[in-house]
């Protein structure tokens, strides 16, 4: 069983309890709190694992696109994987150059393709023959050449949650890998297109490195075939997907992941690109929240109600995702099984069922761990709840990087 000392040690990995208290007092709850140091070391570990191999890390902005986070990642040398024009624009505002941004997405609109071409992004990751054709026409009309990477679907099971698996034939993503050679020949035949890469992304929160390795091998084999056909490209983009240990155990080793990719690539002479999101920012954040009610009637379960709900963190409601939940100050007393829930009028607004936690009382501060990725970005205004603030800690300093939304902010978009 986890002792109170272990608990404090794991909590201290992100922040001292006194700092968390100060943040809660000043920024209020619920609030997201990120630790810059944790993010930096995750980035450096991944980067260093490539050694001297030519490579680029394109941070998957969808995981957390707060300006301050994107700027921080950029300061470490990262490029960006943007999944919408909104993300492209945020990347540009954070000082990234168009040639440091790849643009992915299964349904890019015409105006998005126009803009991507006009900007001259490093690569537009194309998902279908139709999109390839639309892109070729747009670039031709502008008298320019679009840089294209083809997203291939290798039909590999990522063995992750089905909602976040993308590499099977039955998924909407990419083109079947066996269709790729013909499409690369088509790219070569169209003067307004230039093939720059092969892109693959088989899913997220992948905890076995084997499927990621097999996807990399499939891409490298395709690159060899293309070279055999006299078709040149510049990079191999292996996407993201490396999972983290939400239970606090040992997750996949990100450095080992890089080693496997490098090994799969052999000495292919192409730049190796990855698009990590979760592994960089996930463990660097917590959702800081406060207990608003403890409900325990003899004939029912014990419910601990928090001031955060699925509007702030929807991963448990959407994927049944597990997140560790810890009191900031642990009370003495026997741990108790409880359902930890939010205040929203839906039963899926539940963070944990039958979780054994130290005693909790109204007013207690609680952190939900590993909320740096796919958490704040997936928030909503359901029930007219304002988006929570985001706080970035760096060493002993911290600052609000997004203030709490107000009702006026929300209503500013409306007319009655
Ligand atoms: N590249 C592409 C093309 C992607 O679609 C994604 C994630 C990534 C990279 C980054 O993957 P990561 O390294 O973070 O696994 N909302 C879900 C996750 C959705 C992931 C979507 N794509 C969640 O909360 O688990």
Tell me what the structure shows.
It is a single chain. Strands 1, 11, 12, 13, 14, 15, 16, 17 and 18 form a nine-stranded mixed sheet that branches. An eight-stranded parallel beta barrel has the order 2-3-4-5-6-8-9-10, surrounded by seven helices. The radius of gyration is 23 Å and the shape is elongated. The termini are far apart. Helix 3 (36-49) runs parallel beside helix 10, helix 6 packs across helix 7 and helix 9 (209-228) runs parallel beside helix 10. The protein has helices at 4-12, 17-27, 36-49, 67-75, 85-93, 110-119, 129-141, 180-189, 209-228, 254-265, 278-281, 315-319, 407-411; strands spanning 31-35, 55-60, 79-82, 101-103, 123-126, 146-153, 175-176, 193-199, 235-237, 271-274, 285-296, 302-306, 325-327, 336-341, 350-357, 365-369, 390-394, 397-402. The protein is α/β, with parallel strands linked by helices. Residues 60, 62-63, 81, 104, 164, 201, 204-205, 239-242, 275-279, 315, 373-374 line the site of ligand LLP.
Summarize the structure in short.
This protein is 31% helix and 23% strand.
Give structural attributes.
single chain, 416 residues, alpha/beta, 9-stranded mixed beta sheet, 8-stranded parallel beta barrel, 13 helices, 31% helix, elongated, disordered N terminus, binds ligand LLP
